[in-house]
Amino acid sequence: MEFLLDFGKILLLTFRDVLPIIILITCFQLFVLRQPFPHLRRVIVGVVYVIVGLALFLAGLDKALFPLGKIMATQLSNPAFIYGQDVPVDTVDWTAYGWIYLFAALIGFATTIAEPSLIAVAFKASEVSAGTIKQWGLRITVAFGVAIGISLGAFRIVTGTPLYIYIMAGYIVVVIQTIYAPKDIIALAYDSGGVTTSTVTVPLVAALGLGLSESVPGRNPALDGFGLIAFASLFPIITVMGYAQFTHWAAKRSKTIIKED
Amino acid sequence: MTLTKSRHAIFLFCSVILKKLQSAFTDLLPIILVIAFFQLVVLRQPLPHLGEIIFGGLLVVAGLSMFIQGLEMGLFPIGEAMAQSLAQKGSLFWLLIFAFALGFSTTVAEPALIAVAWEAAEIASNGNIIDPGEESLRSYALGLRLSVAFSVGLAILIGVLRILRGWPIHYLIIGGYVIIMLMTIVAPEEIVGIAYDAGGVTTSTVTVPLVAALGVGLASVIKGRNPLLDGFGLIAFASLLPMIFVMGYGMIIFK
Question: Is residue B82 a part of any domain in this protein?
Answer without folding.
Answer: no
